[in-house]
Amino acid sequence: MQVKVAVGQWRIGAPPHFDDFAARVERELAAVVAQGAQLALLPEYLAMELAYTFGPQVYGDLHSSLAAVNTLYPQWRALFGEIAQRHGIYLLAGSFLRRQDDGSYRNRSLLFDPQGRHAWQEKLRLTGFEKDAKAITPGNALKVFDTEFGRVGVNICYDVEFPLFARAQSEAGAVLLLVPSCTDTPAGAARVRIGCQARALENQIPVLCAVTAGDSDWSAALDTNTGRAAIYVQPDRGLPDGGVLAELDAEAGWLVAEVDIAAVKAARSNGQVGVATDWPGQLLPGLQRARVTSFERT
């Protein structure tokens, strides 16, 4: 099974109005659909670009930005649902900081199907920035989603740096992992990249990573953006030796490429190593705890 994917390296803009943002999203997604994309992936914190529409008194303050942008959730959901339905694609709409009943916000990625229906995955572990904000709380459920090309999982940025989330999704049948990301330092981008490659290796499934790009000095959340859109697979027979199926350069844009899920599955079954199937070997009773051992005299 092959699927053509479009992975965004989204340059953060400064839209005066929601309609300006919507027009750009529609234009760029139409362009990748014209190239045959069946699945499109946008980056984490994408919705925070909309803080600019409320003016400097709002976009210069994180808490004001969160509250203001949250009022646009119905329009956001409608926009991406309509685009997914119009083009008949699966669409991961970056992430949206959704207000909860207790006044906190959860970092939520909405996945739309070709009928415009949606489901979501929330971020499970918070970065230092998110903890320091004193307004963002983690989600508490790990999910997988059925698509025409197989079951998929979502790890939002920092979540991909933890092995057990993706492992649980893989064990639940995920054949593809989607990672919307936003990092503000080269070190942060490297951590996400290493996490993506590690999850691809451990679970022997493709990992798609979308990123924010460019500098936005006006934003309290998106001032500096690093990283590159990429598709990672396990290094094995029939797959790239370095584990990078495709990667964008430093310029913003879209990475459009074919992902051969069948070839990845074949390498998982008949490759040089079986990391995914050998995983339970780590859980043998004698290996679950490291024992301090003294040196013996020779």
TrEMBL record:
The lineage of its organism: Bacteria, Pseudomonadati, Pseudomonadota, Gammaproteobacteria, Lysobacterales. Belongs to the carbon-nitrogen hydrolase superfamily. NIT1/NIT2 family. Residues 3-250 form the CN hydrolase domain. InterPro entries: C-N_Hydrolase, C-N_Hydrolase_sf, UPF0012_CS. CDD domains: nitrilase_Rim1_like. This is Nitrilase. It holds the Pfam family CN_hydrolase.
